[in-house]
Amino acid sequence: MFLVTGATGGIGRTVVRLLREQEKQVRAFVRLTSRYSELEQRGANIFIGDLRQEKDIQKACQGVQYIISAHGSGGDALALDYRANIELIDSAKANQVQHFVFISVLGADRGYEDAPVFKAKRAVERYLESSGLNYTILRPSGLASDLLPLAERFRETGFYLLVGDPKNRTSTVSTDDLARIIVDSVTVEAARNQILSVGGPEILMREDIPKIISRIFNREPLIINPPLLAVDGLRGALGFFNPQAQKALGTFRTLLANEFFCTREEIAKLETTFNFELETLESFLRRRLAV
Ligand SMILES: NC(=O)c1ccc[n+]([C@@H]2O[C@H](COP(=O)([O-])OP(=O)(O)OC[C@H]3O[C@@H](n4cnc5c(N)ncnc54)[C@H](OP(=O)(O)O)[C@@H]3O)[C@@H](O)[C@H]2O)c1
Predict the structure, then answer these.
(1) How many C-beta atoms lie closer than 10 Å to residue 77's C-beta?
(2) How many percent of the chain have pLDDT more than 70?
(3) What is the CA(9)–ligand 1 centre distance, in A?
(4) Lowest mean pLDDT: which of 195-204, 212-221, 236-245?
(5) Of the residues 3, 4, 5, 8, which should be mutated to test ligand 1's pocket, given the most ligand atoms within 8 Å of the CB?
(6) Interval 89-109: pLDDT, tens
(7) How remote is the CA of residue 39 from the centroid of ligand 1, in Å?
(8) Backbone angles phi, psi at 269, to 5 degrees
(9) Strand partners, 47
(10) Cβ of 71 below 6 Å from ligand 1
């Protein structure tokens, strides 16, 4: 039995679909407010709880062999990116779980002071490494599926919003490839007790993305490119009313202000470890947008 947290998220939902296609037993950790009917229809076992509650985590881990931690935090890095994962790891040990897959983030080890999610991820990575469990830590770059709404908006309006430096590099990964890597991590020997960066096969500049989308829809893009200063202004103003949201924007700003791409060596290692060729962003978008 696999336990998947964040089962209704971009990554978790894709993982649950893949596991069910392979007819594996899945316990999907969801909230009562989550949109989980599709997962239920696919035959996942629905566990309703809240990752802020230790008791829910302990109960969800009973009788599982594999744990895939793929939840997000919506701004509360301490409770969800940090504490919930520590509790999942402790419960995994108590239940003699065979393998723990943790979805971290590319750059978790760069010491970004202003990004609570990155700090929490690094602390959890360290805790998992010294837990005695079999583990795989995956550090993805940006997800291709997160670009689908932007592409749909482009299809309707011709506009594309690109905040920050258009020359910053990224290696956006196909969400389907990432799900396959996550699922295979529990059986592929070379992935055991490894920290792996996960990106797509190409290093793109962020300005390449609207060009790809424009090629797909055969339409010239109207790119709106506000500077990072706009995010700084928003953060400053928010700080007066909501310090928590201001801190969460620190992670967002870090994502926009820095480069997140995998080296050619990291991609080659990934393809060798999991024995398949990674999909390009253009191929993913054409497949998912059916164009
Ligand atoms: N997206 C990226 O580009 C990217 C890149 C690198 C790493 N990552 C990491 O990958 C992980 C998943 O990302 P994602 O983009 O797939 O996430 P997402 O789409 O934002 O989904 C977040 C998931 O976490 C669940 N969740 C949030 N709070 C919860 C709580 N209190 N109790 C139970 N479930 C809760 C949400 O449930 P609801 O449906 O109820 O809201 C949802 O299923 C995150 O840890 C993220 O840091 C993401």
Answers:
(1) 22
(2) 99
(3) 5
(4) 236-245
(5) 8
(6) 999 999 999 999 999 999 999
(7) 16
(8) -65, -40
(9) 29
(10) yes
Q: Give the start-to-end residue ranges of the domains of the chain.
A: 2-141+175-198+263-278
Gap between the Cα atoms of 84 and 97, Å rounded: 17
CA of 260 to the centre of ligand 1 (A): 19
Residue 241 pLDDT exceeds 80:
no
**Beta carbon of 64 within 6 Å of any ligand 1 atom:** no
Distance 215 CA to ligand 1 centre (A): 30
Q: What's domain 2-141+175-198+263-278's architecture?
A: 3-Layer(aba) Sandwich (3.40)
For ligand 1, what atom is nearest to the CA of residue 79? 31
Any atom of ligand 1 within 6 Å of the Cβ of 146: yes
pTM for this structure? 0.96
In whole angstroms, give the CA distance from residue 51 to residue 33: 13
Q: Within 13 A of 142's CA, how many CA atoms are on the CB side?
A: 26
Going by pLDDT thresholds of 50, 70 and 90, the confidence category of residue 250 is confident
Whether 252 lines ligand 1, by a CB cut-off of 6 Å, is no
80 Cβ closer than 6 Å to some ligand 1 atom: yes
> What's the pLDDT at 170?
96
